[in-house]
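hi support,

uploading two proteins for the ticket. first:
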Amino acid sequence: MYYRWGDKIMSEFAFFRFLSTNMLSAEEKQHKPEILELTEEVLQAHGIECDSKISKISEEKLKEILEEVRKLRKKKRKDSGKSDEIEKSEQDSTEESAISEASIQ
């Protein structure tokens, strides 16, 4: 189920927040439709139904949401035999996050 604001799904805004905080790996950026779909599932599970709630989520909570998205994605990929690609993507993302955090400090 997708919650709509005009013609955009709510996960679009969450995806933008992931991008703006450098949380997504290059591989995740390339698979935007899949990430949007899974993000929508996670947002729905958390009862987040509008942009205003997404905009107020702390960066820590946003990271938790993305981790849930990655777990769902990994599970779906594992079921279809593509989990190695996801594991490498997560490792790259973790390394990118560590580098970004180090350069901020």
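and the second one:
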Amino acid sequence: MKWMTTLMMVAGLGCIIYSGSVYIQSGETVYELPVQSVGRDQGQVDLSPDMNPIKVIFHTRFQSRTKTEAARFYSYAYEMKNSLGQVVIASKKTMTTRRDKKNIPVNEFSKERNRTHTLGTLSIEEAGIYRWTLLLMNHQSNINEAYLEVRKNVTSELPITLWLGLLLFGVGIGLGFFVTRHK
């Protein structure tokens, strides 16, 4: 019975990871737009309804410059407007981490990290030029690379395998508790 609970949990976890991968990597890259490591950057993209739904993703590659346990690496503010000047996507975030100072490995500070931020998903009604602005502020890191990715025809709904994976994982945990309690 123990092997069955382990198998259900592993299968559930596999489905969850697969679903996340499919969801994140769905669609096709239309634009990869390098942005300045620090400061304000802007540009424009030509979008049309045949690309719907469209997802904008922000990628960074950075290194920590601090040895403190609460690190504030960088922050960004992104905005995309249509041809009428209306905001269609807006996103802002601060990339932080909280670490236990006693357990920070020596190479932790020089290790390069990659982060991916989904800025938003949209469907547009008419083709046109969309203008974007990104303000990237460096706090306690060295940003080695930053770029925007625009993907077309992305999946906007979570795959059914995610729900199946959550169900299998949950049943595996429940069955594991049942087996250990009845021994």
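thanks. also noticed: The mean pLDDT is 85.
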